[in-house]
């Protein structure tokens, strides 16, 4: 067998090969996948190298370096979210969100049980202020038989703010107590905040600020009158209270828990009773969800009027109640120094004084209470009576016998809120 060899004329030429075959460079490879920059690095333990899969450093757990980021650095956050993060406390967080308040279990239970007539507001420290809603009414709603002699038309003044109609007010369910943080609260089971003067009462209630869209202030003469008119017009009866050292003088079986631990009826000591203690008859509506303690226990400073040399200056409505300069002199009438309230002479008294229950209106059934006044100098009002005032205490009880600097252990205050 013979083998024939044919020569290859031309041979292998570099120009006939793909670029990668001659350069060996990955970048010359056609259709190559894209690799990261690490692909070109050597394995090592220094800068500019990559770690091998069995490098001990990969299993060495090390704590991360501590660092912080300001809320403004959170690029995907909202203004509201950042405000919550930077808020000083829970109350500030609610404010940042524009939330009315914390709808917690206590508030929900109270609103449900009272069918919305009671609620809980929160002060700046997140502490509870139990309140009762008083819905607006007009004088016509009370009927002409009740409003005779008052010159009453239009909206009741408690529901006007500089002439603008309001749908309601909220009144502290209990007299003010002072919390451990030094803020006003209204809660059951607490002693009342007493031995305070009129100016302190005004400042402390105003310091609550705006709560759930309502402006806080000291309860006013108009607030008190609004509640009393409802009680009297309804004909259901007037509330009792702690008028005899821990019990009701007219119904001695009605008793509260004295703050000094002494038995009710013992005529000594600090005979205030804990807020909310006693029977349901001590609420303004004779029920569990009324405003508690308006009769007896502690007198309550009120806003919106004063007696100067026997002549009243009175806020024309609740909007003007907070500004003494806006109170209007009610000339033509000098306040008697003392009398059962329903027997006070009212000749020359303005209709505004009658509607505010400063003096009685002719022919109208009067609430219970005694009035005492000093007709010299400036005198600020408190109402309701104290624990030892017996039959002189009541919704009509009115004391304008003392200066604004007066402090006694049977004088307190109560906040109210207007939208």
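Q: What amino acid sequence fits the structure above?
A:
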């Amino acid at each position: 067998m013979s083998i024939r060899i044919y020569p290859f004329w031309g041979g292998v030429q570099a120009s006939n090969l793909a670029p990668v075959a001659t350069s060996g460079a990955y970048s010359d490879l056609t259709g190559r996948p894209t690799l990261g920059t690490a692909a070109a690095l050597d394995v090592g333990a220094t800068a500019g190298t990559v770690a091998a899969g069995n490098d001990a450093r990969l299993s060495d757990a090390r704590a991360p370096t501590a660092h912080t980021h300001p809320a403004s650095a959170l690029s995907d956050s909202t203004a509201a979210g950042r405000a919550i993060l930077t808020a000083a406390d829970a109350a500030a967080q609610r404010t940042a969100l524009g939330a009315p308040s914390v709808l917690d279990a206590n508030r929900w239970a109270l609103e449900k049980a009272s069918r919305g007539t009671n609620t809980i507001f929160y002060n700046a420290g997140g502490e509870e202020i139990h309140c009762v809603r008083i819905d607006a009414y007009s004088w016509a709603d009370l009927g002409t038989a009740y409003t005779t002699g008052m010159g009453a038309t239009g909206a009741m003044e408690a529901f006007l703010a500089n002439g603008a109609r309001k749908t309601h007010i909220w009144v502290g369910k209990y007299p003010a107590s002072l919390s451990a943080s030094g803020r006003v609260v209204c809660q059951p089971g607490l002693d009342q905040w007493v031995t305070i003067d009129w100016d302190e009462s005004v400042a402390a209630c105003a310091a609550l600020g705006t709560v759930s869209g309502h402006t806080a202030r000291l309860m006013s003469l108009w607030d008190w009158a609004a509640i009393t008119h409802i009680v009297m017009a309804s004909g259901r009866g007037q509330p009792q209270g702690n008028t005899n050292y821990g019990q009701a003088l007219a119904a001695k079986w009605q008793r509260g828990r004295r703050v000094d631990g002494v038995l009710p009826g013992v005529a000594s000591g600090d005979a205030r009773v804990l807020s909310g203690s006693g029977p349901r008859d001590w609420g303004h509506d004779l029920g569990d969800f009324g405003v508690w303690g308006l009769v007896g226990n502690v007198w309550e400073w009120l806003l919106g009027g004063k007696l100067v040399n026997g002549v009243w200056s009175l806020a024309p409505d609740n909007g003007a109640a907070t500004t003494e300069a806006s109170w209007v002199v009610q000339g033509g009438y000098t306040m008697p120094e003392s009398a059962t309230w329903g027997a006070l002479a009212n000749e020359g008294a303005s209709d505004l004084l009658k509607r505010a229950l400063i003096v009685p209106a002719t022919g109208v059934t009067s609430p219970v209470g005694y009035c005492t006044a000093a007709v010299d100098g400036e005198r600020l009002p408190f109402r309701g009576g104290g624990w030892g005032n017996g039959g002189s205490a009541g919704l009509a009880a009115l004391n304008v016998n003392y200066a604004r600097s007066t402090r006694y252990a049977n004088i307190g205050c109560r906040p109210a809120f207007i939208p």
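Q: And what stands out in the fold?
A: The helical segments are 19-23, 79-86, 90-97, 105-114, 144-147, 198-206, 221-234, 351-355.
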